[in-house]
Design a protein that fits this description.
With 112 residues, this protein is of the alpha+beta class. The protein has a single domain, classed as Pantoate--beta-alanine Ligase, Chain: A,domain 2 (2-Layer Sandwich), CATH 3.30.1300.30. Helix content is 45%, strand content 36%. The protein is built from 1 helix and 4 strands. It has a 4-stranded antiparallel sheet, covered by helices on one side. The longest helix is centred in the N-terminal third of the chain and has 50 residues. The protein starts with a helix and ends with a strand.
């Protein structure tokens, strides 16, 4: 009887460690999914800025985007460079109503 109790205690400890490891893996997978979606949002926004006909104005724009059913807050900041025909575009992506930055992407666009 004592041997069965010891075996059950060992099994319980191993199962607890397995559950903690599994919970960590699930959280990591969720964070990776959010960062991947944020990268897609940032790349889409940079492509949109690079392919528009008109020259992007200097300054900052706050918009939102939706990807895979999740809403993101996107900040697009356009700044000048030493070359007047090139502008620097910095895109920051966060989940809606969260402070943590998921992705920052910087690109350069040339005057059309």
């Amino acid at each position: 009887m004592l041997e069965v109790l010891v075996a059950l205690v060992i099994l319980a400890v191993e199962l607890a460690a397995l559950m903690r490891s599994l919970a960590g893996a699930i959280a990591t997978a969720g964070a990776l999914r959010d960062r991947t979606l944020a990268l897609w949002v940032a790349e889409n926004r940079l492509s949109r800025v690079a392919t528009i006909i008109r020259w992007p104005p200097l300054g900052r724009r706050h918009t939102s985007a939706r990807e895979d059913g999740r809403r993101f807050r996107v900040v697009t900041q356009v700044a000048g460079t030493a070359l007047p025909e090139i502008r620097r575009v910095r895109i920051t992506v966060r989940r809606m109503r969260r402070r943590q930055v998921l992705m920052r992407l910087v690109g350069f666009v040339r005057e059309p």
